[in-house]
Design brief:
Blueprint: E1 4-12, H1 17-27, E2 32-39, E3 43-50, H2 53-62, E4 67-78, H3 83-93, E5 98-105, E6 111-118, H4 121-130, E7 134-135, H5 138-143
Length: 144
């Protein structure tokens, strides 16, 4: 299985807390490649793909920030209408459920990248590959 580490941080839903986290990462030369925030009344979950997840885990944890790593997959899709639907249809046909996803674009031409957390990661990777959707390696993702 292609393993990409996603960093999840529990962030208090208060002014400046997100900035404190991004400042800490920046001060330690940790570049954020993709992120998503889901919030509730009191807390949010900041999910990030960073170029050096081990360093990010260490820096955040040693600064008393609640953090964990989760394995996700990253699929390369066509950055045009229905590009995402192709990947989602493949997963649907393979009976793979998505827990969540978020996307990011780069300057790599007509491609976009989708971070996916599924209930069956290995089955998702196999189905996507069989369906013609490339799943990126961790090395590729961290270098984007």
């Amino acid at each position: 299985m292609t393993k990409v580490k996603q960093i999840s941080v529990f962030v208090e839903n208060a002014g400046g807390k997100l900035s404190d986290i991004t400042a800490l990462l920046g001060e330690n030369d940790i570049n954020i490649r993709a992120l998503s925030i889901a919030d509730t009344t009191d807390f949010g979950i900041l999910r990030m793909i960073v170029q050096d997840p081990e360093k990010a885990l260490y820096v955040l944890a040693t600064n008393d920030i609640m953090v964990k790593a989760t394995e996700v997959i990253v699929a390369e899709i066509s950055d045009k209408p229905a590009g995402l639907n192709k990947a989602l249809s493949i997963l649907k046909d393979a009976d793979v459920a998505l827990e969540y996803l978020y996307a990011f674009a780069t300057n790599h031409g007509d491609k976009a990248y989708v971070v996916m957390k599924t209930d069956k990661a290995e089955a998702a990777e196999e189905a996507l590959a069989t369906g013609g959707v490339r799943v990126l390696s961790a090395k590729e993702v961290y270098a984007l």
